[in-house]
Amino acid sequence: MGITIKDIAKFAGVSATTVSKIINNKDENISDATRQRVLDLMKEYNYVPNKIAKSLVTKKTNTIGLVIPDIRNPFFPELARGAEDRANEKGYNIIFCNTDDDAEKEEKYINMLVEKMVDGIVFTASSRRGSEFNKGNKFSVPIVVVDRDIDIEGIKGKVTVDNFIGGYQGTKHLLDLGHREILFLSGPLKSKTSINRLEGYKKALKEFNVDFDEEYVIEGNYKSQWGYEAVKNIGNKIKYTALFCGNDLIAIGAIKALKEMKLKVPDDVSIVGFDDIYMSSLIDPELTTIRQPNYEMGYKAIDILIDALENKEKNVKKIDLIPQLIIRKSTLKR
Amino acid sequence: MGITIKDIAKFAGVSATTVSKIINNKDENISDATRQRVLDLMKEYNYVPNKIAKSLVTKKTNTIGLVIPDIRNPFFPELARGAEDRANEKGYNIIFCNTDDDAEKEEKYINMLVEKMVDGIVFTASSRRGSEFNKGNKFSVPIVVVDRDIDIEGIKGKVTVDNFIGGYQGTKHLLDLGHREILFLSGPLKSKTSINRLEGYKKALKEFNVDFDEEYVIEGNYKSQWGYEAVKNIGNKIKYTALFCGNDLIAIGAIKALKEMKLKVPDDVSIVGFDDIYMSSLIDPELTTIRQPNYEMGYKAIDILIDALENKEKNVKKIDLIPQLIIRKSTLKR
DNA sequence: CTGAAAGCGCTAACAC
DNA sequence: GTGTTAGCGCTTTCAG
């Protein structure tokens, strides 16, 4: 603050242009003597280049917006960190925004980000939205969508997890273990995410010649509290020996309810979660789950975005990461 | 992008100044007719004001840097969310940075933030640092320190938790329950945080006329893995009926080790954690712990920072939040 | 090798 | 009520 490129130029007896070139390593044609003098002066006066001014002329802020529902949701810290790491490696910073799955907030934030001239946005859409994001022609920032599959006009990329495979893997694992009555505790079936997992579940059942029964699919939300309540509500109205949960939080809630009902996991009921959040390996019993590569998702999303930004990639890049079955202690042979 | 204030001015047949005034609600002296015309035009052409340009002249970006060790550490999402919420309420955005407790990264990030002209920084210092942050005269951004108590030249505020009280509360709870052999599984005793908790522990002991024994303090780090190992290593070399852990993660590791050693929590050993992270109420047994008001810390830190920014508060504001004993299921009468 | 000039999009006196 | 002018700190032709 205070000392500018002009000051340095004056002190060094050169023009601002020269200093600018040196700062930006466009100094092939600058004599070593001049360069050294300028560099020394910059150090001496503790010169800090003003990127805002630079951005104004270059139209590039090296800042990316990360729009997620809520960083407190254990799903997102990993993703955010992956995003931040890649951004940092490439010389970008991340502005993060919590939308609480609220469409209004989403638009408000995106607007703010556009005003601040972010170079692009990585966006996890509200699970309450349908699969269309009606931005219309309103914004024009490059966007990469992550985790939740959604269509946005002019989108630059999509990084999702193959939820179909995940749903299939989890169910198959349970079937392999001999389970046949497998309850599916699903998140909101409005989102493609949940729907695809359910499809995977059906596919596995079919492979094992187990009839699909609608009663075995319970729709709720992605919170631990709901998992708890769902299990309690079901009681023994439905007979089951295994639970496939829409995410780990639901699984954790379910385990708690089961314990209270004096049912043992995995002895009485096997449980498979989805996500592999941080705490899943820390709870008792350690949770068998489908690991989502969250860190990688954030990392890749930023990677694709920056690639689109810097190399003017025109084609939309879609990546479907493969989730992985992590077998721990919450599932057992029937 | 594309359409600027000048364009709008031209379309409306007024000067850019007039449009600027309208945008910024400094329009007491603008006729309703003009205002309406301009407003309509802005909407029609989907005008997005360029805050970068604005920042360049006002020297204010309405952006704040949040520098923390690692968003994946369950301690920080809450804090980050509190910070973001307050920032958002006040019309600011947050750039977040993960330093991995690495002093070099810290400085690199702060540098980047200064270059981007953030209005201020909220900073959680590395636990590996001593209590002095040798910025020297290098930077000049307003800084508010959060969580970790550290002295920085020209600091604008400090938001910490009273760890002494926390240490006291946890230990007293155990003493009240009849425990006398209380192991203290501490984080790195280099930081004031840990030291103060230990002091609280001693104070409580003293009040109950229990002699302090150095052997009962084990120094490690704040990871669950360490809690696990510590308990395993101790085995029955030291006799204890209760564990007071430096944080919840340590406690979770300890519980796991204890289970493996066929010791029951809380029947055989009582455990108190520290932090009350998200998962603490979800594990088995639900953890008795000292709740740190993380959300509030982030919230307050931003609040103080913005206050200093906008009202030119000159005196350093220090807030010591009081932690709270949350009694759950991991402690029992001796 | 180096610099002069113009301009990025906006705001802030001050004048009318 | 509204416009003129100047300038924020930087980069970018283009000329020499």
Structure, explained:
Chains A, B: GO terms for molecular function: DNA-binding transcription factor activity; transcription cis-regulatory region binding. Chains A, B: It comes from Tepidibacter formicigenes DSM 15518. Chain A has 334 residues and is of the alpha/beta class. Chain A folds into 3 domains: 5-49, 434 Repressor (Amino-terminal Domain); 60-160 and 293-321, Rossmann fold (3-Layer(aba) Sandwich), CATH 3.40.50; 163-291, Rossmann fold, CATH 3.40.50.2300. The first copy, chain A, is built from 11 helices and 12 strands. A 6-stranded parallel β-sheet of chain A has the order 2-1-3-4-5-11, sandwiched between helices. In chain A, strand 8, helix 10 and strand 9 form a beta-alpha-beta unit. In chain A, helix 1 crosses helix 2 (16-23), helix 5 packs parallel to helix 11 (294-311) and helix 9 crosses helix 10. Chain A starts with a helix and ends in an 8-residue tail after the last strand. The interface between A and B is large, with 51 and 51 residues. Chain A binds a DNA duplex (16 and 16 nucleotides) through helix 2 and helix 4.
Q: Would you tell me which CATH topology of the largest domain in chain A applies? A: Rossmann fold
Helix share bin of chain A: 40-55%
Q: Could you tell me the radius of gyration of chain A in angstroms?
A: 26 Å
Q: What percent strand of chain A?
A: 15-25%
What's the main sheet of chain A like? 6 strands, parallel
In DSSP terms (H or I, runs of 4 or more residues), the helix count of chain A works out at 11
Estimate the global geometry of chain A from the Cα principal axes.
Answer: elongated
Report the largest inter-chain contact. A-B, 51 and 51 residues
CATH class of the largest domain in chain A: Alpha Beta
Mean pLDDT of chain A: 92
Distance between the termini of chain A: 69 Å
- Could you state the CATH homologous superfamily of the largest domain in chain A? Response regulator
Number of domains of chain A: 3
Low-confidence stretches of chain A: none
Q: H/E element string of chain A? A: HHHHEHEHEEEHEHEHEHEEHEE
Structural class of chain A: alpha/beta
Oligomer: homodimer
* Biggest sheet: strand arrangement of chain A: 2-1-3-4-5-11
User: CATH architecture of the largest domain in chain A, please?
Assistant: 3-Layer(aba) Sandwich
Number of strands of chain A: 12
